[in-house]
Amino acid sequence: MSTRAQIAIQTGPEEWAHVYVHYDGYPEQMLPALAAWAPEDILAAQEIRQVSAEALDCFIPPRSPRFLSRPTCELSHLYLWQDGHWIDATD
Predict the structure, then answer these.
(1) How far apart are CA 2 and CA 85, in angstroms?
(2) What burial class does residue 36 get, using C-beta atoms within 10 Å of its C-beta: 0-12 exposed, 13-18 middle, 19+ buried?
(3) What integer is the mean pLDDT of 15-38?
(4) What is the spatial distance between Cα 66 and Cα 35, in angstroms, rounded to a whole number?
(5) Residue 86 pairs with which residues in a beta bridge?
(6) Of 11, 23, 34, 63, which sits most exposed with the smallest number of CB within 10 A?
(7) Is 60 exceeded by the pLDDT of residue 3?
(8) pLDDT at 2
């Protein structure tokens, strides 16, 4: 069973890109894996099957990220870039 997640990255004053992650979105896996990646890397990926420290396994062709006015948890977990590192913002 997949643990789906979103990675929200602020791209404007009231604009957040929400990048979909299909597998292994639970915090114990995602936070160490995301530590290897900058927000720009995640935005370039657009839609991700799985995040690891070694690679972003991306869908080809990817769907573009959803843009919302604030970080919004619509799946199991939500991650944000804050103060130079990734955080679990699910709660």
Answers:
(1) 25
(2) middle
(3) 97
(4) 22
(5) 81
(6) 63
(7) yes
(8) 78
C-alpha–C-alpha distance, residues 38 and 81, integer Å: 9
What type of residue sits at position 80?
L
1, 49, 67, 74 from 37: Cα distances, Å: 25, 15, 20, 22
Instruction: Enter the pTM of the model.
Output: 0.94
What is the rounded distance in angstroms from the CA atom of residue 5 to the CA atom of residue 39? 15
Closest to 18 measured CA to CA, from 59, 46, 57, 51: 46
* Tokens of residue 78, six digits: 């939500």
Query: How many Å apart are CA 31 and CA 48, to the nearest integer?
Result: 15
88 near 27, Cβ under 8 Å?
A: yes
- Give me 15's structure tokens: 């604009």
User: To which residue do tokens 């103060």 refer?
Assistant: 83
